[in-house]
Amino acid sequence: MSLLTVEGLRVHFGHGDTQVQALHDVDLTIEPGEIVGLVGESGSGKTVTSLALMGLLDPRSSRIEGRAVLDGKELWDEKGERKTPRHEIPMAMVFQEPMTALDPVFTVGYQLMETLKVRRGMDKRAARAEALSLLDAVGISDPKARMKAYPHELSGGMRQRVMIAIALACDPKLLIADEPTTAVDVTIQAQLLDLIKKLSRERGMSVLFVTHDLGVVSETCDRMITMYAGRVVERGPVKEVLAAPGHPYTAGLLAALPSPESRGGRLATIPGRVPPPGDVVEGCIFRPRCPYAQDECRTEQKLIALTDTREVRCIRSREIDFEGVAS
Amino acid sequence: MRILRVVGTCLVAAIPTLILATLIVFMLQRLIPGDPAVAIAGEYATPENLERIREELGLNQPLIMQYLTWIGNAFTGDLGTSFQTGESITALVMQRLPLTALLTLMALLVAILVGLPTGVIAAQKVDTAFDRFLTTGATFGIAIPNFWLGMMLIIVFALNLGWFPGPGGVSLQDDPAGALRALVLPALALGLVGGAEICRQVRSAMVESLSTDYVRTHRAKGLSNRSIVWKHALKNSSLPFATIVGLQVSRLIGGAVVVEAVFGLSGIGSLAVEATNQRDYGVIQAVVFVAAVIVLLTNLIVDVSYRLLDPRIR
Fold it and tell me: Taking CB atoms and an 8 Å limit, are B235 and A105 in contact across chains?
């Protein structure tokens, strides 16, 4: 059985006439221990998807429809209201911005121990011991001293490690990592990716890795899901998708990657931009930007199975050989 | 150690402020028309008599000498003697100060008890009818003059309902319990306005804290809303809170002059009013000196609290 099953996830923002739909029937599954990349440009809906799963969207300005089951627990009921208290759901999240995601006026140790008390019902002593071992597990040297440190006394990479330690304190079966390496420099980025992979392997923890960086996906993930304008447009095993993408959007993202061969030339771009939520596009949502668009694309596109493991939302996928990259 | 150094620095920095404040008052009151020697000896005194009095009081000395003598004595706790009664001013101030101190403390308590919870609650219900009701109420509260509020409180709660004693006749030394009861209405009159200001400040600081990334992290961790609001967001809002409470203290001491007059309380505020009417320079100076010391001490406490509340401030 899948660890996470999401069916027909829709998110609306606003009320009445000004209401816009940010997610359109997103389906996804994550198996135990699997690392899944959620890929797309800004505005594609990847962050909204993860915030919706975490229950972090403001209920006053948003509405959730659809069904999500994590580890046998329904995340919300038909009205989109939380069914299980958040601290009982084995899911945690690491955010993009390590500089602002930690509370500036409490020590690292306090923030960790507080999580352990809420999540695992530990007393102060047990929480302290576990906090030390978690800081050690995320590769922070001299955990005892760091417990007393305030976030501003740590570097960006260290703060992100602390964030990961706090996420681990939730004892998650699913870790959502929302561009956790975007705000740190490249060497730290590689270390953090290795750390997340290692923790996933050691703990059998699934990871939903939200990123716009296909390089990160190819290094880290088992499967990938491409999102565009609030819809899933392609999904499949990372190696297969990158070698031979089935959707022109995934192909476009791949072509935009710099490579040694493209040195000196101009990088490819995808013309146009992601349509803002609320824009009506007839037929395939990617049609206005697609170099392969034809009349048949004016009909609504459904996800079609290419193989047992691959699905794509493009009617012309079988006719065209999109260029991939060797990985 | 760090805190001690901060206290030291602040104390040293406070001295010029204290000298400047007293110097200004010293010079200003010399500009008020009227001669203390005439006030003491009466209008028909002989010139010799007046001269003798001026000499006794040191009024024939150059102004700057008068000031230096006075400030030097003040730092050793000797505030001089009253021109009018010949009493020790230090004793006079010490007799009047406790009532004002108690009044100010009670008013500050009222201000915090009213302002803090309403501000926090309003911040959680931003842009709802409840929030608008509270912020509008707070704006009205800030606009109400405390002497008018004082009179209204006397009319309703002392004269009509009879829950509290009317103005006058309060002695902290003779009847502490009665004095405490008599101070309730003055404390309300003085503190409610401050409560309205604290409410507005706390609300805006809390709105900002609650929209930060780290609050989202706390939610993701599964902390209860209560813990997020009353522990994390509130501690992050504590700098603006400490600032506004510090400002309130100086405002309350100023307001005490008016409120003491309305409620007929013989505190340090009414002492200043009496002394001004009688050109009793020494007493006015002493009151200003004491008020300045209190305000500077408050600033010191606020400064130290910043460093205790926010580890990023060194």
Answer: yes
